[in-house]
Amino acid sequence: MLLPGDGMTYIQLPPQDVINPLEYTSEQWNDFAKLRHACMFETIHIDPKESEVFAHDVPLPPDARYVQLYTQIACARTDPMPYYADDAERPTDDFRVPDTDACWYITTLIDLNALRPAVGVTTSTSEP
Hints:
The protein has strands at about 5-15, 30-35, 65-75, 105-110. The chain is an all-beta fold. It has one domain (about 5-115). The radius of gyration is 19 Å and the shape is globular.
């Protein structure tokens, strides 16, 4: 069973300037929104052959074409048995996995135009 530590997902929009091909592209994108994954607060554990899904709705600018998701989750919890009071609120502050810690990370580039319906395309059905 895995007991992941806390993490973050950064919703990023393309840079306004020209991208330097000699640098990591993910570092040049602009953070649009940040989503905290408080795995310790939620006491998430992942059993063998299972996975975890984080689902969020984030409103994007209507003219956005590309969006990049960068997620980083600490492999281990800093406190294996955290205690939270019954009235504690879920943490939402920014969380960075320290460079010295092992982590899982994934970067996903999404072309929103591929998800939007094509302009001018109509579908029709005919009855037999």
